[in-house]
Inverse folding.
């Protein structure tokens, strides 16, 4: 497709290009544009019919949006932004430098400008920041016929017409009614009689993740957003809720790998090397310096290590197993908390469960490892194979137990302290558990081997 | 709520309980039921009005669904399952023992039974397995007025009425039309003239993750599913797509923590200890035995370690830093692949990027670590602090480089081999990188310290 587009540009066959583009969906056109050069993009963009152009604009990369805006005449700017939904405008403005924002606002009507400024003020993690003001609002007392008239009038400009919201004269939210219900009703029915009056809504200040989770829980395609006086101010649509879920998941994945999440929507390849490095270095430094602590423990027990040098060779296995057990537990608990399957009050239940899992898992690992030690070292003359196997086996069982308890406890404590539990993931747990496993190992060895 | 429900049951105030339940949304009633005892659940369930009962039934836990089914009379069974959507029925049947499935199928009409059997045959990861057959199908040539008549007739039974699909006489998919377009059109317009004929669809055998990603990409609330002859056979609705995204994400989280994902939808606390242990032990065993390899390397270099014992104390720090760097890289690459931001052909670009990141990150870590060594050991008489700092610094830089290259390469290779890239995550990378970092350390030390 890219090749063909370039070919058509080169040979100036713009009509054919136009025709080709009319068969492609907006997100695909946007992907195509993002692969073109800064000289080709405006040329191809201008071939798109007005409405499609606005839709495509939403999907292209921030850099290219900015480049196009700078390229637009004032009337082009008005055309594109006139066709966008409020939430998309706000999303775009949030990524633009102040000068560009100013120019865009200058091209919008004063009413739109007021709405945009209002929306820009909501915190970036709030329901207000992802809602749109373009919904179908019905007034209490309307008949089904009047409702349809309103939908036909507002429909083209609303982001969704599937659920309409019914408000009182003072804009207080009274109920919701789906277009399905309206279609199946008698034209003379009063909407108040057939609407769902037991309506779930969120507040502008609610966390956007909470909103997305509520929509998922109730299988909503749109969620009404009200202010503190229960007045309807906007709706959140399912596509934005899906994006929020995705964003929050990405944040968790990043944190759980020891990467500082950033708000940029750039893909991996588009993010500059220095930004990648910046996002990663903090955790690496912190964890590297923390690991020094484990090193100090080893230094302290050095004399004992020198007596039976083979002990050193078990350090990586014990550290890794502890780390893996700990990150297994922390991951399941972090996900349980994120999905609201677990809460802080379950701490004791979780610890009890992880303890029982540790017994099963630890016993199996200890047995398998003893077998391995016998196979590898049964001819050894330097040390008593059986004692070593026992020491390592007991250490393994205790390490698994401690790792799993640390792994499941820290995320829950973090959530109690209103921190993101995801910071208590594999990297941090591993570092803590390393020190524990080495301590356990040397103490057990000192006790049982009399060193 | 739970307390109040129990109180009302105890005092037999069923009418009041009924009234209380009528103010609660189905998912919340389901959560309430799941907290009650097996004796209370059927009692409360039977208080629900017929339609709400079916809706609630979908949301309750599998165990309780099974218990209720066994409790139902044949006519109750017919009532509940008669009000469910096909995809929900199939979801439930897939979790039930054969005897229960048989009883349910016996209570459904022969046509429904045929559809259910058809749906049960699609692979569990396919589009067919998550689609529903209840959509509004319009015939080519209909007018807008006829379309609305059809919607009114089919609407109650369709899972969504927001997008209707237009088919030819041979059931081939011709186009899609939203209810918004229909509402804004003239009643005498022919739908073929106003429908979107450039319609995106998926095939029954397509992977369900692909379907969910397509819906996210195009912001669809429903996606038509066709067979190999392009005949429309069903639709996937956005709520099911969201569930798929969630499932796949959970699978990745599990794999990336070295846990075997299972298909059960039980929450953490509902999963038995032995199942948890089973899901975790495989990776732990494999990784424990692999870590033996790192131990062997240490054994091989034991003599050198004995010359300068302080070297041992750097092992945890080097292993951890390598592991952390590797899992950072593997996580970003695994997510990039999952979100289709990266593909196998980007391998060289990714490696080049990770190499540059490594240089920045490695240099900073090496400098900070040298400073730390000077501060901690500047009075040492046992070894030359400067040489040790240089050895550890160079090792750190090389370890970061190798870890990041291994971390970014393995997931891409896995995706080339059509394996899930998520298996190449932190635990496996850590084990591989451990061995590398120890090898690098001892070789650099041997070279520079002449041991």
């Amino acid at each position: 497709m890219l090749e063909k587009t370039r070919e058509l540009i080169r040979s100036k066959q713009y009509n054919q290009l136009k025709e080709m583009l009319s068969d492609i969906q907006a997100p695909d056109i946007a992907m195509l544009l993002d692969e073109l050069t800064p000289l080709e993009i405006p040329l191809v963009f201008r071939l798109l019919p007005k409405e499609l152009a606005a839709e495509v604009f939403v999907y292209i990369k921030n850099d290219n949006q900015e480049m196009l805006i700078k390229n637009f005449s004032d009337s082009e700017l008005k055309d594109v932004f006139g066709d966008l939904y409020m939430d998309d405008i706000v999303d775009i403005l949030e990524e633009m430098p102040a000068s560009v924002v100013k120019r865009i606002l200058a091209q919008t009507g004063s009413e739109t400008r007021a709405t945009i400024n209002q929306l820009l003020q909501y915190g970036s993690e709030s329901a207000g920041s992802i809602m749109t003001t373009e919904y179908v609002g019905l007034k209490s007392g309307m008949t089904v016929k009047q409702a349809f008239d309103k939908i036909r009038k507002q429909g083209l400009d609303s982001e969704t017409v599937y659920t309409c919201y019914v408000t009182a004269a003072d804009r207080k939210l009274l109920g919701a009614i789906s277009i399905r219900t309206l279609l199946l009703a008698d034209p003379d029915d009063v909407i108040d009689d057939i609407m769902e009056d037991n309506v779930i809504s969120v507040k502008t200040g609610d966390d956007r993740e909470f909103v997305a989770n509520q929509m998922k829980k109730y299988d909503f395609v749109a969620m009404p957003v009200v202010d503190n006086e229960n007045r309807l101010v906007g709706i959140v649509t399912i596509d934005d809720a899906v994006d929020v879920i995705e964003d929050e998941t990405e944040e968790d994945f990043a944190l759980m790998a020891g990467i500082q999440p950033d708000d940029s929507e750039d893909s991996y390849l588009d993010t500059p090397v220095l930004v990648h490095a910046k996002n990663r270095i903090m955790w690496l430094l912190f964890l590297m310096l923390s690991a020094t602590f484990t090193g100090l423990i080893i230094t302290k027990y050095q004399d004992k290590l020198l007596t039976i040098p083979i002990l050193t060779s078990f350090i990586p296995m014990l550290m890794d197993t502890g780390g893996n057990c700990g990150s297994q537990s922390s991951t399941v608990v972090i996900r349980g908390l994120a999905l609201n399957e677990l809460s802080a009050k379950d701490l004791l239940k979780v610890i009890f469960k992880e303890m029982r899992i540790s017994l099963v898992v630890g016993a199996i690992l200890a047995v398998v490892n003893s077998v391995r030690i016998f196979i590898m070292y049964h001819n050894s003359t330097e040390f008593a194979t059986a004692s070593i196997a026992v020491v390592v086996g007991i250490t393994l069982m205790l390490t698994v137990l401690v790792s799993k308890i640390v792994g499941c406890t820290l995320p829950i404590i973090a959530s109690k302290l209103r921190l993101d539990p995801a910071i208590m993931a594999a990297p941090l747990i591993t570092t803590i558990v390393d020190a524990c496993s080495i301590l356990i190992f040397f103490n057990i060895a000192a006790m049982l081997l009399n060193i």
Notes: The first helix of chain A runs from residue 2 to 10. Chain A has a mean pLDDT of 89. Residues 28 and 106 of chain A are 31 Å apart (CA to CA). Residues 273-449 of chain A form a domain with the Tetracycline Repressor; domain 2 fold (CATH 1.10.357.20).
